[in-house]
Design a protein that fits this description.
Layout lengths: L11 H4 L6 E11 L5 E6 L10 E2 L2 E3 L6 H13 L9 E10 L2 E11 L11 E7 L1 H7 L3 H12 L6
Parallel strand pairs: 1-6
Antiparallel strand pairs: 1-4, 2-3, 2-7, 5-6
Helix pairs in contact: 3-4
Length: 158
């Protein structure tokens, strides 16, 4: 019987160190109206992470949800907007690590013809703004990165 060749690389299972880190995925919406304005929402003053900051609508993916189903649910909960999952286009993603948690942010471009918003308790204001204004108002780095990617790649052009 021929001798089994020695692997060129060590087994991945032995190379990966496991930990008790939690993994979290969030989905955000670049929701455009017919005038190509983006919806931004202001977090309430009781928000424990970033009170009173302007933000993109979206939130955490729950167990068993697809990314688009999670975003559809979050948009309905936070804004009253009912968006068809087939109109959601993944345009940007990134990940990062915080103490005890790995986070992946996914951003989807989608559209609405309805500009009336019904805010949840999580937010206290909303605005339809240009991409330039959204870049000036939304401060959170992952969301800034998504907006810059959209600007730099001309994803709202045409």
């Amino acid at each position: 019987m021929p001798k089994k060749p020695k692997p060129l690389l060590p087994s991945l299972s032995s190379a990966i160190k496991t930990s008790n880190m939690k993994t979290l995925t969030t989905c955000g919406a670049i929701l455009l109206n017919e005038s190509k304005q983006l919806l931004i929402v202001r977090r309430s003053d009781t928000d424990e992470h970033r009170p009173q900051q302007w933000d993109l609508p979206g939130g955490h993916v729950e167990a068993g949800e697809t990314f688009t189903a999670a975003l559809k649910r979050e948009l309905l909960e936070e804004t009253g907007q009912e968006i068809d999952e087939s109109d959601m286009e993944l345009v940007y993603g990134m990940s990062g690590t915080f103490p005890g948690v790995n986070v992946t942010w996914l951003f989807f471009l989608t559209h609405t013809s309805k500009t009336k918003i019904r805010l949840s308790y999580e937010h206290n204001d909303y605005k339809w703004v240009s991409l330039v204004d959204a870049l000036a108002m939304v401060e959170y780095p992952p969301k800034q990165a998504a907006l810059k990617h959209i600007r730099d790649n001309g994803l709202l052009d045409g």
